[in-house]
Amino acid sequence: MLVDEMLAPSAGVAQLIDLSDPRVFRQVKYSHYTDTPAFVLLGTGRGYRGAGRGYERSLPIFGELADRVGDLRTPVLVTGLKVDPWMEDEKGYGLRVVPTVAFQAQADDRLSPKWNGYNFDKADEKGFPLNLDREKGSRTWHTSDRNLSGLCLNRSLRVGSYDEDIANSDEDGRVVVVSRGAGVLEMKGILQTEGL
User: Fold this and answer.
1) Total structural domains in the chain?
2) Any long-range contacts for 44-53 (C-beta under 8 Å, 24+ apart)?
3) How far apart are CA 40 and CA 144, in angstroms?
4) Which residue in 87, 116, 123, 178 is a FRET match for 184, CA 20 to 30 A apart?
5) Cα–Cα distances in angstroms (integers) from residue 11 to residues 4, 135, 140, 187, in the given order
6) pLDDT at position 192
7) pLDDT at position 54, please?
8) Which residues constitute the domain of residue 159?
9) What is the pTM of this model?
């Protein structure tokens, strides 16, 4: 989210819609994974499901986002957020996610855990998989029963919202930057300016 904010408005971090782009595939296939600046929210704060440190630390962020989104009977993909320090937060990451002017909460049943492990070949105009099928399809869609998770594309081109530890990262992770209208020379300049 910080990288996305630094690069706006001419460029940004790959979103769900970008995770079906062959150019993004080339950056991650068989080598890396890439996270998106998005969260998936499922259910309400009551009976928050999770286990371990990641779940406990994510609870304050889930609470803040759930208050902004409202009805969570259908899971939502939340985008258009930035990160601010939150010194008063002793239970979480010490960070608050704040809506920007681009804030969106897209409710979509395909984020439901019932679709976990289904396959697909193509995505719709928002990046959600089309024609989910148990057997057919070259890519896999992963969902979770956790109340809050990140959204990523892994090295086998599976798209998933299954990691509740939203600070989890390792040496295989990469941030894929995409143009939001910037030309090649402008993109190079933006990345050099930001030290990326």
Assistant:
1) 1
2) 44/72, 44/147, 45/147, 48/147, 49/145, 49/146, 49/147, 50/146, 50/147, 50/148, 50/164, 52/165, 53/165
3) 9
4) 123
5) 8, 36, 27, 7
6) 73
7) 62
8) 2-193
9) 0.85
